[in-house]
Amino acid sequence: MKTAIVTGAGGFIGSHMARFLKQKGYFVTGIDIKKPEFSKSAADKFIIADLRDPKLVKKHLFKVDELYMLAADMGGMGFISCNGPQIVHNNAIINLNLLKRSAELKVGKVFFSSSACAYPEEKQMSTRNSGLKETDAYPANPDTAYGWEKIFTEQTCLSYNQELGLKIAIARFHNIYGPEGTYEGGREKSPAALCRKIANAKKTDSIEVWGDGKQTRSYCYIDDCLEGVYKLMHSNYNLPMNIGSTRLITINKMVDFIAKIANKKITKKYNLNRPQGVRGRNSDNTLIKETLSWEPQISLEEGLEKTYFWIENQLKKKE
Ligand SMILES: NC(=O)c1ccc[n+]([C@@H]2O[C@H](COP(=O)([O-])OP(=O)(O)OC[C@H]3O[C@@H](n4cnc5c(N)ncnc54)[C@H](O)[C@@H]3O)[C@@H](O)[C@H]2O)c1
After folding, report:
1. How far is the CA of 10 from the centre of ligand 1 (A)?
2. In whole angstroms, what is the distance from residue 34 CA to residue 143 CA?
């Protein structure tokens, strides 16, 4: 039986990844500072540990076939735009601890979850972003400290690979969304935040939108993301690769989609004082299509519908 450790298994992507790997027949160990909030972990074993502590990493990490590094101090724009020192400190330490110990243990292969936030700000100044290619990352100039840490850890992974022979896979995720992700509390990302606001709205109502709503992004549903990670992890490709969608939409359009799903008449109140990140961000999927024959299968309408009704249901449970 193949063995895997998923760090961040108490979070959004990590909890889905633990379930995905279980379904593939792995023996899965999850590690996180907290258990998943919304359902029982699918992992065979779940360890509560703070991965910033090298002694705990030494104690709990063991030789496995595959290590999925998904633990991070992270959130949507509202969180990452104003917690730079904390984010860089925590994430760099987590990742340095895990890579060092993985090399000592000779772990079979390590996956690192990088981000589209690693791309330079100047290539994301227009709403008409035709897609960021992997090579666009350099010369590096991410717009957030969160993105700089991702660039730093990508490079650290590459040097472990080149100098110590540690097998690695690196994905740059572009806005992954779906059920069982944070939807309130300050760390939520735009699809979940907008679903929550619309679920809480009356049949005819207005909601607050950060910025002018004309900023663009592309969104990838969690199931597609997991397939992409799995394919990447089982390929020989070891440089950073985009995992995202190439369908660019404005935040305004996304609000309209969700309002239609909810069957509500929603108008937008723009708040220009809230962070909105880069003006336009999109994935170029040429490399992943050519290398892994992967492209997203779940449309934004389908993915948003699943996400919306999951969030609506969570809110109803609280009433
Ligand atoms: N969700 C996205 O759209 C997206 C986009 C780009 C990159 N990523 C990356 O993917 C990974 C997973 O993201 P997510 O959306 O699941 O985030 P998440 O916040 O839902 O999950 C991260 C998990 O890491 C855990 N964690 C934080 N600090 C820890 C510590 N010191 N020790 C142990 N565990 C700790 C958290 O408790 C949390 O459960 C992260 O590396 C993130 O940067 C996500």
Report:
1. 9
2. 29
